[in-house]
Amino acid sequence: MATDTLIAVEHLFRWYGTTCAVNDLSFEVRRGEVLGFLGPNGAGKSTTMQVITGNLAPSAGRVTINGIDILEQPKAAKASLGYLPEQPPVYREFTVDEYLRFCARLNRIERAGIHQAVERAKERCGLEQVGRRLIGNLSKGYQQRVGIAQAIIHQPDVVILDEPTVGLDPIQIREIRALIRELGKDHSVILSTHILPEVQATCTRVQIINRGELVLSDSIDGLAWRMQSSSLLIGLRAAPAPALLADIAGVHAAEQVDPHRIRVQHDPGENPAEAIAERAVREGWGLFELTPERRSLEDIFVDITTTEAEEAAA
Length: 314
Prior knowledge:
Layout: E1 5-16, E2 19-30, E3 34-38, H1 45-52, E4 60-65, E5 68-69, H2 74-78, E6 81-84, H3 96-106, H4 111-125, H5 140-152, E7 158-162, H6 170-183, E8 188-193, H7 196-202, E9 205-210, E10 213-219, H8 220-226, E11 231-236, H9 242-246, E12 251-258, E13 261-266, H10 273-283, E14 287-293, H11 297-313
Parallel strand pairs: 3-8, 3-9, 6-7, 7-8
Antiparallel strand pairs: 1-2, 1-4, 4-5, 9-10, 11-13, 11-14, 12-13
Helix pairs in contact: 3-4, 4-5
């Protein structure tokens, strides 16, 4: 029976000896989402992707694809999946057409429908002009396109892309990102990456994994809210003690940056700039600067992963 939840990961664990690569991971992917799966190198992203696609057995936990348990009914579950691993699984000695016909047969597409499936995948991935060329003679960007084409040739509900733009030049990266956005219109996509701009450019939702654990799950809109100004840099000719600013409503903390500048931290939803300006005028502090500081996705990513690492070390 069709459901909006295409992938459900429940309490997933994966151990390598005494090393826990994935630690009690749970999340869902819904129809029509492009999910950015973020994390530093070694965080457990690729291990998670391999378990979801049935290429690696979990140590514990459950993965269902369209409600089908991937361990109990692997063939039925995998029929709804398209997968591009970090290294595209292409045969360099094949032409693009030969390879895609081969992939169509692997995905049990009926003989009468193979030609149409190949042409459709080539069109969607911009491969119409290179069908007769050897894959080994194509640029890396085009080889990535071939890898994506094999992942979608059977029109799966979910497409999983593991680091799809690694090693590409800026023009190729832009083209692959545009392709991923296009795929998101007809498929649910999981994009595993450690490249932060990738997520903002292509995804509707983001998850951050660190040391095998899920440490953030939010929509792109929610992430944008997190990236709103959460601190103010204040320049004062007669700067008071930071504690006086910390008493102002909406200010969480204040720290001295230099003899004439103080940084105050505040809730993104409650900007105390007006109250600070009024207080500065009333007290004669000589206000000459009041600058909001925006947090980037990189700031959020570093804060979360660094905090988690420090807590684990402690």
